[in-house]
UniProtKB/TrEMBL annotation:
<protein>
    <submittedName>
        <fullName>Alpha/beta hydrolase fold domain-containing protein</fullName>
    </submittedName>
</protein>
<dbReference type="Pfam" id="PF20434">
    <property type="entry name" value="BD-FAE"/>
</dbReference>
<dbReference type="InterPro" id="IPR049492">
    <property type="entry name" value="BD-FAE-like_dom"/>
</dbReference>
<dbReference type="InterPro" id="IPR050300">
    <property type="entry name" value="GDXG_lipolytic_enzyme"/>
</dbReference>
<dbReference type="InterPro" id="IPR029058">
    <property type="entry name" value="AB_hydrolase_fold"/>
</dbReference>
<dbReference type="GO" id="GO:0016787">
    <property type="term" value="F:hydrolase activity"/>
</dbReference>
<keyword id="KW-0378">Hydrolase</keyword>
<feature type="domain" description="BD-FAE-like">
    <location>
        <begin position="119"/>
        <end position="165"/>
    </location>
</feature>
Length: 264
């Protein structure tokens, strides 16, 4: 297997000497085809999404060590690895991916080929989480207080890393990310220790996301885990941090509230 070197950006708070605190690891969105740890905003008229790197900057200012992570993308034809978590690779959602490939001037690909890119991304996000665990002392991070998350494709990768790969974390924040129904049945079992989750979807999100968010949250709860689904009224998939949620807070504040609750 070809070894690939990936990077992450650390956004660190001004910490008191000898103190450790929580951490947030975020994975960017982009339909597993585009975006980066530096910027995953989409150029479009009107309101657009907040980059994962910007969330990192904002939360670091709140005293939380943050990491924006890279992962391999579909155009590079990444190796899917040997720890598959997608139980129905021919059933992964491809609608948005088809649109993005057309925008990028790329030929159509099958759902199974999409699944290979997803498996690679999940492996990479899982590897980033494990790396932060190993390097926790270096960044004054409490390894028991590491929360993971992302937006869109990055949220899906984070969810699968936590619930499919079983990477240890204190919670998962998924902005417009879901787990497929077949995979929920395969990976979420009562008796298994599951991290809590906050799942956010917009009112006019990608077609499969709102129901998928509710289904993912419900499945986690049925498996004796804790999960909350929150909605963003009046917005589509590209909602900003300042958008108000059904929880009565902005997206950013809802994320921070969940993170603080899990890492006290």
């Amino acid at each position: 297997m070809l070894e690939v070197c990936l990077f992450l950006d650390a956004y660190l708070p001004d910490a008191a000497p000898n103190s450790v605190g929580p951490a947030l690891i975020l994975a960017f969105g982009g339909a597993f085809h585009r975006g980066s740890k530096e910027d995953d905003t989409i150029a479009r008229p009107g309101v657009t999404n907040t980059a994962m790197a910007e969330y990192c900057r904002r939360f670091a200012a709140q005293g939380i060590a943050c990491f924006s992570v890279d992962y391999r993308l579909a155009p590079a034809d990444p190796d899917p690895g040997d720890t598959p978590v997608l139980t129905e690779p021919d059933g992964v959602p491809t609608g948005r991916i088809a649109e993005v490939r057309e925008i990028m001037g790329l030929a159509p690909i099958t759902a199974r080929e999409v699944s290979w890119a997803m498996e690679a991304a999940i492996d990479d996000v899982a590897a980033a989480i494990r790396w932060v665990h190993r390097e926790a002392d270096r960044f004054s991070v409490d390894p028991k207080r590491i929360v993971v998350g992302g937006w869109s494709a990055g949220a899906r990768a984070a969810l699968y890393a936590a619930y499919g790969e079983g990477v240890a974390c204190a919670g998962v924040i998924a902005l417009s990310g879901t787990i497929q129904e077949a995979d929920l049945k395969a990976h979420l079992r009562p008796g298994r220790r599951l991290p809590p989750a906050l799942l956010i979807a917009a009112e006019h999100d990608l077609s499969y996301v709102p129901a998928g968010v509710e289904g993912t949250a419900s499945a986690i709860r049925r498996a004796d885990g804790q999960a909350r689904a929150v909605h963003v009224p009046g917005h589509d998939h590209w909602y900003p941090a300042e958008a108000m949620t059904s929880a009565g807070l902005t997206v950013e504040a809802t994320m921070l509230d969940a993170l603080r609750g899990w890492t006290r």
